Amino acid sequence: MKAFKIGMPVFLIIVSIVCFIGAIRLPKANLGDPYGPLYFPIGISVLLFIFGIVYFFQEIKRINKSNNKITELFTGRTPKLIGVTIILGIGYTLIFESLGFLIASILFLGALLFVVNGIKNWKTNIIVALAFSFISWYAFSELLGVSLP
């Protein structure tokens, strides 16, 4: 039952995003305001998105009263790891084209492993980053024939 309570607002958020993307792709009007046909569907999708977010947090709050595991998720080291992972992911996407898959993956995985495992396990972090990147590159480029940048 809890999964349904969380799933419904997530479903509304996904529907609002799909509606927003569909509304943006609508053809522009030839007469009058060219963006006139877009205002109403975009407004509805934005409202649906906002209501979905509010509904999601209300359900989280309601579930949180009976279950402290969600509270534990947002305390301690976890929020910092989530934020650093997002920042590293954005950095990975920015350097991917210029440095290529192999070097960008080594840097991204190495940085991520140093954040997660700490500097004490530096040998393991470097070996895992190098091995995973080379194995992934070899599997895609040589075995599967997919060209990587």
UniProtKB/TrEMBL annotation:
A Pfam family hit: TctB
**What domain of life does the UniProt record list for this protein's source?**
Bacteria
Q: Where are the transmembrane segments?
A: 7-26, 38-57, 78-95, 101-119, 126-148
Q: Boundaries of each DUF1468 domain copy?
A: 10-149
Which keywords fit this entry according to its UniProt record? Answer: Membrane, Transmembrane, Transmembrane helix
> Would I find Acetylation among this entry's keywords?
no
Q: Which residues does UniProt assign to the signal peptide?
A: none
Protein's name according to its UniProt entry: Tripartite tricarboxylate transporter TctB family protein
Organism this protein belongs to: Virgibacillus phasianinus
